[in-house]
Amino acid sequence: MRTPLSALVTVVVVGSITLPSLAQDDPHSETRSGRTMKPVITGRQYAVTSMKHQAAEAAVRILEKGGNAFDAAVAGQAVLALVDPANNGYGSDAVVLVYDAAARKVWSVNAEGPAPRLATIEWYQQHNGGKLPDSDGLLSATVPGVVDAWYTMLDRWGTMSFNQVLQPALEILDQGLVLSPGLARSMGSNKLKKYPSSVNLYMPGGKAPEAGSVFRNADAARMLRKLIDAEKAAGPDRRAGLRAARDRFYKGDIARSMAEFSEKNGGLFRYDDFAS
Question: Which of 2, 40, 152, 183 has an alpha carbon 20 to 30 Å from 204's alpha carbon atom?
Answer without folding.
Answer: 2
